[in-house]
Amino acid sequence: MKKSFYLLVLLVVPSIASAQEHHSPYAGEEQREIKALSPDEVRGYLAGEGLGLAKAAEINGYPGPLHVLQLAEQLHLTEAEKADTEQVRDVMLRAATRLGKLIVEKESELDKLFAGRKIDEAQLRSLVGVISNLQGELRTVHLQAHLAMIRVLMSEQINRYAELRGYQGVGAQHEGHPQ
């Protein structure tokens, strides 16, 4: 019985190790249209979504316009505050969708150059530089929208927003707009 057990171990363990050895966290992603972007990321970029780019603002007490609009009733927004929030969101959304589209296009271009084995060092540096700049611009657009909300909301609304969003110990460290 012991010999059978050891023989089984000797046969099974190497095959398990071999299977694990060849597994990649990217397995299956080779089927993506753009290898570096998930379908959700592509959709998010094209829709102007935040994609976590404004987290530094959001979690430090700078509300986002989309969530402010979603919480308008609980925040007791005035019509003027609602209109100002919609304007901030519209400006952000226009810029974010424009930049997101460019990011998707450039990532697609990069993917095609690699897939076609037609990329060189100069193209690589240039295209990655363009993508990086676009990503930086996109993040700035989202962060600016959060920054703009401080001029729209009162400090009490900012504190309530943080509470409603589930943030502990975060709120208005700034004054908000005067009424």
Describe, in plain words, how this protein is organized in 3D.
The chain is mainly α. It has one domain (37-165). The protein contains 8 helices and no strands. It has helices spanning 2-21, 39-47, 55-58, 65-70, 72-75, 79-115, 121-149, 155-165. Helix 2 packs across helix 6 (79-115).
Question: Summary?
Answer:
With 179 residues, the protein is mainly alpha-helical. 67% of the residues lie in helices and 0% in strands.
Proportion in helices: 55-70%
> Strand count, sense and closure of the main sheet?
none
What is the element string, with H for helices and E for strands?
HHHHHHHH
Task: Give the class from helix and strand content and strand pairing.
Answer: mainly alpha
Distance between the termini: 84 Å
Q: What's the total number of strands?
A: 0
Overall, the morphology is extended
The overall pLDDT, averaged over residues, is 90
| Tally of separate helices | 8
- Tell me the radius of gyration: 24 Å
**Count of all domains:** 1
- Portion of residues in beta strands equals under 5%
Q: Would you identify the regions where 5 or more consecutive residues have pLDDT less than 50?
A: none
